[in-house]
Amino acid sequence: MQMRFSRLGRKAEPPVAIPNGVSLTDLAIGQLLGLAESAGIRWEVSNGALVLASAKAGDRLLPTISTCLDQIGAEAIVEYFNRHSPERRADLSATA
Within 10 A of 68 (CB to CB), how many other CB atoms are there? Predict the structure, then answer.
């Protein structure tokens, strides 16, 4: 029996470029917030604090997303909101 490995003949895909002026942390935060929003969970900054704006996803996904955000740190996420305009945040979350 002969085995064929179709991936071996493929050319490597070029690496994705990180947008100018964006750190890997910013990209990760943008992707996480984008994934959370696609699940119906939206975060905002109010009076310098990260707050849950809406959670339509129910109780199953919110703890997981909250744990990921806790690992990054609320301060880093608030700084992310302060550093980037809503349009830029939408661009960064679109990479998710």
Answer: 14
What pairs with residue 49 in β-bridges? Answer: 46
Q: Which residue has the tokens 């984008």?
A: 34
Count the domains in the chain: 1
How far is residue 30's CA from residue 89's CA, in Å, rounded to a whole number?
6
* Positions of E strands within 1-96: 41-46, 49-55
Predicted pLDDT at 3: 53
Q: What mean pLDDT, rounded, does the chain reach?
A: 80
The domain containing residue 49 runs over which residues? 22-93
* 13 in any annotated domain: no
Which one, of 83, 75, 13, 20, lies nearest residue 50 by Cα?
75
Residue 14 pLDDT more than 90?
no
Mean pLDDT value of segment 6-12:
56
